[in-house]
Amino acid sequence: MDIKERVEWIKKVVADAHADGIVYGNSGGKDCSLVSILCKMACDNTVGIIMPCESSRNFGIDRDDALTVAAAYNIKNVQIDLTDVKKTFVSVMGDKLTEKGEQREKMAKININPRLRMITLYAYAQSHNMLVAGTGNRSEATMGYFTKWGDGAYDFNPIADLTATEIFAMLKELNCPEQIIKKAPSAGLFEGQTDEQEMGITYAEIDEYILKGTGTPENIEKIQSANKRTEHKRKPALTFKKV
Fold first, then answer.
1. How crowded is the C-beta side of 187, counted as CA atoms within 13 Å?
2. Alpha-carbon distance values, 177 to 10, 129, 159 (Å)
3. Do 46 and 75 meet the contact criterion of CB atoms below 8 Å apart?
4. DSSP string, the chain
């Protein structure tokens, strides 16, 4: 599906929902940049929400890059700082987040950030009669590298079928600012975090397996293991059905 087809598809999604616009989380990364450009081409009333939460890069390079893309394509952006909300929430939870070990506590706290962002996007969307656009790609989905009910929640996703490699190519085709294309992919959830470092594998290696079914035995095992372990994230919530 090329750019024109994606844009026409977005137009239909918005029209069918009788929505007045589109809102998305703008982290200044490649995925959200591509989503923002496609959505703006389809719907003039496209709004990016910049949502810094604790991490200093959220207030620095991520916000700067988010604003750069917004300015280049004339996309409205709103900033909502979620740092105090996160601190209050963790305080309210108290020691209830520490009952199952330090690593589980760490991950639970990290995943609060994208879930707070999801709440923010939907609150804004509902109050403005807008749809929430997803910004996750096929490579991330394969690895389960997203937060369930966080960045994994959206009304529609125009890039879900694209690998990270394909997204780079489409951004170049759309003349996205070079600093975005060269930027190391990062969820920006904590200081020094990058996607590839956290997953222990590069997007090029993941995409080689997805697109060609090839890779080193170690990489194939890593991808297949992650995919199996995170299968629940890609499936609809379980519901009881009487046999």
1. 23
2. 23, 30, 19
3. yes
4. --HHHHHHHHHHHHHHTT-SEEEEE--SSHHHHHHHHHHHHH-S-EEEEE---S-HHHHTHHHHHHHHHHHHTT-EEEE---HHHHHHHHHHHGGGGSTT-HHHHHHHHHTHHHHHHHHHHHHHHHHHTEEEBP---HHHHHHT-S-TTTTT--SB-TTTT--HHHHHHHHHHTT--HHHHHSPP---SSTT--HHHHHTS-HHHHHHHHHHS---HHHHHHHHHHHHHTHHHHSPPP-----
CATH class of the domain whose range is 3-233: alpha beta
Q: Around 177, how many Cα atoms within 13 Å sit in the side-chain half-sphere?
A: 16
- Amino acid at residue number 31: D
pLDDT of residue 33: 96
Q: Write out pLDDT tens, residues 210-243.
A: 999 999 999 999 999 999 999 999 999 999 999 8
Average pLDDT, the chain: 92
- The domain ranges of the chain are 3-233
Residue type, 72: A
Under 8 Å between Cβ of 207 and 165: yes
